[in-house]
Amino acid sequence: MKSFFKLVLANLTAIFIVVAGFFAFFLFFILISSVSETSDVKSESVLTLDLKTKIIDSPSEDQEDFFAINKEQKAVLLYDVLQAINKAKTDDKIKGISIESDFISAGITQLDDIRKALVDFKKSGKFVYAYGNTVSQSAYYLGSVADKYYLNPSGGINLQGLSAEVTFYKSFAEKYGIGIQVIRHGKFKAAVEPFLKDEISPENKEQLSTLLNDIWNNTSTRIAASRNIPASDFKMITDSLYGYLPNLSLKYKLADQLIQKSEYDNIIKKKLKIDADKKINKISFAKYTNSIKDDGGKDKIAVLYASGTIYNGKGYDAIYADNFVKEIKKLQKDKNVKAVVFRINSPGGSANASDEILFEMQQLKRIKPVVVSFGDYAASGGYYIAMGADKIFSEPNTLTGSIGVFGVIPYFKELAAKNGIRSDAVTTNANSNMISAINGLSPGAVTIMTRSVESTYQRFVHFVTQNRKKSFEQIDAVGGGRIWSGVRAKEIGLVDELGNLQDAINYAAKSAKLKDYGVSTYPAKVSKFEQFFSPETDEDFSTRVIRNKIGKENFKIFQQMTDPNAKATVMMETPFSIKLD
Fold first, then answer.
1. Residue among 45, 58, 98, 189 flagged as catalytic
2. Does 346 qualify as catalytic in the annotation?
3. Is residue 368 flagged as an active site residue?
4. What domains does the chain contain, in order, with CATH numbers?
5. 310-366, pLDDT tens digit by residue?
6. In principle, which of 119, 133, 318, 450 could form an S-S bond with 308, CB 3.0–4.6 Å?
């Protein structure tokens, strides 16, 4: 018996040591995560944008593998990047900006804003140089604004234009006995098209062609202008893929010189008038932003970030209705917050969650000015939640609109039958078993969900008509699930102005009659430890581990196929993702 108790005690001791070590590890993790980089700025410094810089639209996008403690990439808010460039214009310690990134982690509208800020920075007389090896299209779009663009002699520029490739699953599903029931409103609501067809519809092809051409015209015109290349020549260069060959990049003026990186550094040293054997004082955007203090007064303009897919419930890495409503209520009660800029970067999501958020934004608007700023996406539910605004600013390349609703329900009757599986249901009512993984929707469920989709669409258009001051017929004509660029959205009246986040902040300050003010961000950034163990989420530990391992997009597919609550949800979401790469 004594041996038994000794064994139990030994095991308990071992467990205690393991658990204690586990929490000691995470306490250490929190400590090193909370240590900010030094913000000292040396004289003769060069503000540098390199591969270690990840530009994000909102604090909720600052996600990484929980266990990747030594990950070098630093996330910097777009707003902070723009503030840094503006501050560097008049900072005597900053002599210029160097762009040293073959690939850049940033959205298309973020690149637009940074590019615009760099154009303004150049008016100070300070230099902007860029260097690349094998350069992505997005990195070149940004780097082309530089005074000089230098390319590695064995490098290249991936300049090719934009494309959209739609993958279809209809025949695959039929082959393997997977049934997919779709209920939607809007012939342009292409989120469900891959389940209904084996080729792209004329409507979807039309909207994608218009969208891609709008965005490419905006970006290609700016690149050509910065590089002083005629538009017709730039089209020929792009069509011929000449950027992929360094000698042709030089010949056709995509690059100014073919040199090695060390030679590029020597050019900067010469510009700074420092000895060749001295080290350049390069400072990252992440460090430089730490040196910038908010000198505003007591009055604040709040930037409320809505970034990612819209969900019901609680969570931290997207837009979760329960958490988001709490943030809105904080802003309603905060007397120091005189106006709110609602920054939306979302393709939409749950119709119910979107409705909750819109209601609270409408209440907020009754108390203080609300100005909306669109990022890369403000489509479907992302557009819906903007309908509580006094004014809407959109970037030219924003993907917006997609005023439509759908529901997708997969079921596995034929697949199950092929493998000797069938089911019987015992029910109390006609539609007790309304959603079955084997048999799909009951006839009554199809009827009621169709009415639900139609009702949700009517409600969607109603709020748009109120905000945009147009008739149902006018909004329905540009709705139907169709997506638009920001430029087109301005033309058809879905937004008020073309402008960036700073334009929206300036307008909010004017609306609140503020001259001396600070800018604060909501929701506050959550540490990685809090993200993983947060009680502000409806997910259990194992779910978070799965999502962390397979990634957000794959997890959404997994959830759609396995979660009965997700399958039954009416959605306002657009499937498109526009990238320059």
1. 189
2. no
3. no
4. 45-160+241-290 (3.90.226.10), 300-404+443-552+564-573 (3.90.226.10)
5. 999 988 778 999 999 999 999 999 999 999 999 999 999 998 999 999 999 999 999
6. 318
